[in-house]
Amino acid sequence: MSRDAGSLLAAAPLSGLYLEAGQQLRRLQDQLAARDALIARLRARLDALEGHAAPSLVDALLEQVARFREQLRRQEGGAAEAQLRQEVERLTEQLAEKEKETQQLMSQPQQAREKELVLLRRSVLEKERAQAASHVLCRSLADETHQLRRTLAATAHMCQHLAKCLDEQHAQGDVGEKCLKEREHTDGDQAAVEKLQEENRLLKQKVTHVEDLNAKWQRYDASRDEYVRELHVQLRGLQAPQESELMRKEISRLNRQLEEKINDCAEVKQELAAARMARDSALERVQMLEQQLLAYKDDFASERADRERAQSRIQELEEKVTSLLYKASQRQDTQEEGPCWIHTRSRTAKYLETDVLELGAPGGWRPGPGSPQLESPAEDVCPSTAHRGQGKRPSCDRSKAINVNSTFFQVLRTGLMSVISTILFIHLTLSMPLKEELL
């Protein structure tokens, strides 16, 4: 159809040239007729004026006129007329060919147009279907992007929660509450890390799916562009003004929609790049949190071992204090049994004081020979008791027993104070590294 239309367009200037050549030929024929008429008038006048002229002169004049007329024809219309005749013949042949082609085309023009219209309608329907498919695809991409955004927001919220929990753990000063809560936070952090890893795996799968959809959309976009270009080429060959105008409007509308879809795809690509960046930052944050969790686990294990050693040491000290108190209660019960126990009690008190001082002194300190010690109650015994026999009570036995008891309790109090100071020293020693780490 386009070839026939091109041949018709090429025949239009040829027909114009043919008409111009015909008009020029008619003008030349008119000029020749006017000159023939002028010659006839001149001959008539010549016959009227010179009736007695010789026939030979008239014939000579006629021959001369004929010769002049032939020369005039050759001069005016010789070469130009030949060229015009050749051009007219050639144009006539071409026009005849074009008329034949036109008649052949006019014999079935409606069928070709109907076929072309059917093809165009089919192409429009296919394009609408492709547009609907692309709309569905873009909607699915938008849904995927929204879901990725929500997942990333949840991940960021979880990371913020973990960071807040870690900051709260740093801010806590009580070691006991920190030890009890750490187990729960450790389990919760481990579950959160596992959850984040699962979410990251799902995010990777979704990103791969979105990339595949994007590649498919690009291929579909390229094929659609090729199809639109083919439609443009086909529509250029149409000669129906109204239908071509409608098709131009339809193509412009489809081009606008195509540009909108391309812009949407560009926005989706940007959102995908932002999602990838957010995913990378979330992965880095998770790795950093995992490293911090490992460091905190090591610190908590060492602190737990130190606390267990301190607790065992405290239990040992408590057992020793309990045994000393038990011994003190037994000796207090046997206080009133007689004077025969006075010297034994004094020696026991002295040994008890030595044990308590050794137990209470930090670092295993023992009193030296030059250190001040409690005086033995045996030095205060009345000298008359050395000469007295067994079974008799002197007058100062009760006062000496009271002095022994008071001395014993002073020694016991001193030992307990030493034990308490040792426990406080251990607690301060264990809490100093934690304070330095927190600072």
The rounded Rg comes to 64 Å
Main sheet, how many strands, which sense, barrel?
none
CATH fold-type name of the largest domain: Glutathione S-transferase Yfyf (Class Pi), Chain A, domain 2
- CATH class type of the largest domain: Mainly Alpha
Class by alpha and beta content: mainly alpha
- Identify the CATH architecture of the largest domain: Up-down Bundle
What share of residues is helical?
over 70%
How many discrete domains? 3
User: Which parts are unreliable, with pLDDT below 50 for 5 consecutive residues or more?
Assistant: 1-6, 338-395
Strand content: under 5%
* End-to-end gap: 89 Å
H/E element order: HHHHHHHH
Structural shape:
rod-shaped
Structure annotation, total helices? 8
Number of strands: 0
| Mean pLDDT figure | 67
Region (Disordered): 365-397
Subunit structure: Interacts with STK11/LKB1, TNFAIP3, IKBKG, NFKB1, MAP3K8, TEK, RIPK1, CHUK, IKBKB and SMARCD1. Interacts with polyubiquitin.
Main location: cytoplasm
Coiled coil: 81-108, 244-327
